[in-house]
Design goal:
about 130 residues; mainly beta; eight-stranded antiparallel barrel; about 10% helix
Length: about 130
């Protein structure tokens, strides 16, 4: 049986707080299922020899049930973030289908849909200044 994406579900969560590495919650639990790093369009367009490449980060999150556990302290979260170190500890929804992270970087909502019974949220980090 093939699963197809449904139309957009409306407004995603207004805030997503890290409870554990890769697990975000604000009313509902969102689990990070894919983190993809690739060179940004801006980095590919640079031709100067001394330029640095800024990775573009795309995060796929699914709304899912997660067994309750005690939230980690900020210092524990920081230690455990090593494998998910490019993800912020908090995102806040802004106008224009974007989230602003704690570090003020913007993340575009690429997709917010439902596949079968799973709600999906895909965010891509925008280059600085966008």
């Amino acid at each position: 049986m093939a699963s197809r994406a449904s139309p957009c579900l409306g407004v995603p969560a207004h805030r997503l707080w890290a409870m554990r590495p890769g697990i975000y919650e604000k009313g509902r639990t969102w689990g990070t299922v894919v983190v993809r790093l690739s060179p940004s369009q801006r980095a590919r367009g640079r031709s100067s020899p001394g330029s640095t490449h800024e990775p573009s980060i795309t995060v796929h999150m699914w709304q899912m049930p997660v067994h309750p556990q005690e939230p980690m302290s900020p210092s524990q979260l920081t230690l455990c973030q090593l494998t998910l170190s490019q993800l912020p500890l908090m995102w806040q929804l802004y106008p224009g289908k974007r989230y602003r992270a704690m570090d003020s970087r913007l993340w575009e909502v690429v997709d917010h849909s439902q596949i079968a019974s799973t709600e999906q949220l895909i965010l891509t980090q925008l280059p600085p200044g966008e």
